[in-house]
Amino acid sequence: MTKHRFLPALPLLTVLVMLGPVLAGLWGTVLPAFGHFPVAGLTGPNLSGFQSLLDWPGLPRSVLLSVFTGFASTLIALSIVMLVTAGWSGTKAFQTLERLLSPLLSVPHAAAAFGLAFLIAPSGWLSRLFSPWLTGWDRPPDLLIVNDQWGLAMTTGLVVKEVPFLLLMTLAALGQAEAARSRTIASALGYGRVTGWLKTVFPRVYAQIRLPVYVVLAYAMSVVDVAVILGPNTPSTLSVQIVRWMADPDLALRVQAASAALLQLSLVIGALVIWRVGERAIGWLGMMWIAKGNRGALDTVAAGISLALATAAALAIFLGLLVLLVWSFAGFWGFPDALPQSFTFKNWMRHSEGVLEAVGETAAIAVPVTLAALILTIGCLEAEYRYGLRLSNRGIWLLYLPLLLPQTAFLPGLQTFMLTIGVDVGRVPVMATHLVFVLPYVFLSLADPFRAWDTRIGTIASALRASPDGVLWRVRVPMLLRPILTAAAVGLAVSVGQYLATLLIGGGRVQTLTTEAVALSSGGDRRAIGVYGLMQTSAALLPFALALLIPALAWRNRRGLRHA
Amino acid sequence: MHDGLELKDVTIRKGGNVLLSLSRKIEPGEVLSIMGPSGIGKSTLLSFITGTLAPAFEGEGRIVLDGNDITEVRPDKRRVGILFQDDLLFPHLSVGANLAFGLASGGSKAERTAKIEEALAEVGLEGYANRDPATLSGGQKARVALMRMLLSEPCALLLDEAFSRLDADRRAQVRSLVFARAMDRNLPVLMVTHDAEDAKAAGGEVITLGTSTPTGEAP
Predict the structure, then answer these.
(1) Cα separation of A418 and A44, whole Å?
(2) Chain B residues within an 8 Å CB radius of A560
(3) Closest C-alpha among B84, B102, B87 to residue B191
(4) Closest partner CB to A558 (pick from B47, B86, B92)
């Protein structure tokens, strides 16, 4: 019976668990940023951190890189998704694309980035496929494709990974936007597919996916693992530089890192403001475009290009995973051979011990974190059902807050904060930090199906004299088994993919598949990267497979739940 | 013990506007039918009686069942049974497990199984215990839903458009079955419907709401 007093407090607890570390992290950033860092013997406030940051010659370039890669990748990914949805939604081609892209959502960023690098590098698969018969190369050309100084490879990597995310968000929004009916009307009025969709459906769909788009922008501007793998080095993006300073044994550099973290935060806030202004401008231009009444002359071209790009994005991930697989089993593999001369298990044997340890660590973190997130989420949703404690619109923003703030703005600060109050880094703090990122995704994934459950079934069950807990455990949870397992799979995938939180809050001592894989990137051992990248991908994908399989088996004799 | 279901000065409001008011006692074995167009708050009245009123509505007045005021009692302790227009059988449970969910606790496993078989036999569904509810016809599902509710030994029965999804010939059959079983158990029955046939078949008093004012002013 304690649960009844406990349940109404769960929403508040959830908000605390989610925002506590964020606030602590911001606090731990602001103080050192202004020169106050007693652990290193520094007392402020002063502007020395900002001063030395400004004196760093790489600053303008790394700021520019962060801003450019963020805007470019978000704009390109959003345009591809909008145009491909406009041109193809409701068609067979779109269904195929949807089916291809959905499982790709859970592929960790690092694995996708490695795969892309192995495809497009001078000695990558693409160059091998066309050499020497077309290019005449018998050795890898001396080109800087990966880690190029403009961050184009990094931008490509981000686009490839964000297209599936934005597409799935768009699909969820389409259902509520009465898209099919609007398109029918628009085409009856003589509008082409793409133009008609952009003029009628796009405004409603965009309003629904606005927050996810902001998340993509904030993420792309401050991502670390993808930037380490694909991004430029001289200088790197601001976020990568912050992490380097944090890793420096010289504690004084942390002051500079904290100042840079605040700069990173203001860059992201500024970018979001600019994006918002851009939305207004697009809206205004769109109204003029609508008023003109063009029926769309370039529709076919736009639809064709967008489908080609979306397919290329899907292929980049698929082929990337395939090339990781080939490398992980590769014996000697000379250039320009398209395949290795021999295949061997030696790479896997050689890394088996390290991989297994990393798998153990990854699971030891991901499983409890996901369970905690599920309990908090189901508790919040159940409290909403029983007591009407529903999150307002502002509450939704709270959920998105940890995803909108750049990780580099508060994770270094969180590490500093823990150092200041004397908490040791390690696995438990890492778990608490993972929960900050896992919770919003689990909540967003489960909320809709949980709320869509027919509450009359609850009325019937209580009329049958089942207690509120009985209704929850004996009826609602079993009926919602599939969405609950899917939410769990999402949570596990998010935890598995966490790089920065594991690295900084674990103090380098917590070694998961992701931290190990990213750490390998500087060494360039492609066989090792293949092994770790594949294991990382499997750790994220396997739960999704189980989330499909378990309900199908458990309810194999229950037709009413087959599509639930 | 059987003293019927009494609604004392019950008023349902939404945003301060009165949807309906009712003060009436339903004797054991009596059927009271409430008729009226949709949106008038008939179903809302029933959710007030089951204790599951949505937050957008306010209910006022007392509900007395067999002499006990149940207005503040938790839904699962009220002993008020309800049937909706959909059967709402639990899709994850077999037909037998659905009935076991309803069956009041207690008794050995064999006794419980026997009771469930007996209930199935009572509505002509012998041997259906292991079936997936999704494989049953509409009329069969309605009968299982009725027996599930009756096995929980309610002291009153509410019918929320309970027959409106059934096709014409099934409808009369299921309807007379429900009324007969409720009369057997001497239950007070409150039925809301928009179908005059249902109200006529019930044989009891009929209250018609909102005929002149479809927005739902009090009668």
Answers:
(1) 19
(2) 89, 91-92, 132-134
(3) B84
(4) B92
Domains of chain B, earliest start first: 1-71+186-219 (3.40.50.300)
CA distance A396 to A444: 9
How far is it, in rounded angstroms, from Cα A467 to Cα A474? 10
Please provide the CATH number assigned to the domain covering A1-34+345-556. Answer: 1.10.3720.10
CB contact under 8 A, B51 and A462: yes
Per-residue pLDDT tens over the stretch A424-468 = 888 999 999 999 999 999 999 999 999 999 999 999 999 999 999
- In chain A, which segments carry CATH 1.10.3720.10? 1-34+345-556, 58-326
> CB of B50 within 8 A of CB of B78?
yes
Chain A residues lying within 8 Å of B74, measured CB to CB: 462, 467-468
What are the structure tokens assigned to B192, written together?
């809301």
Distance CA(A150)–CA(A237), nearest Å, equals: 10
Average pLDDT over residues A99-112: 88
Yes or no: say if A405 and A265 are a contact pair by the CB < 8 Å rule: yes
Half-sphere exposure of A516 (CA within 13 A, CB side): 25
Contact yes or no for B209/B219 (Cβ under 8 A): yes
Q: What ipTM is given for this predicted complex?
A: 0.89
pLDDT digits (tens, 9 = 90+) for A530-561: 999 999 999 999 999 999 899 999 998 898 88
Assigned architecture for domain A58-326: Orthogonal Bundle (1.10)
Q: How many residues does chain B have?
A: 219
CA nearest A239: which of A381, A407, A23? A407
Nearest CA among A495, A477, A491 for reference residue A544: A491
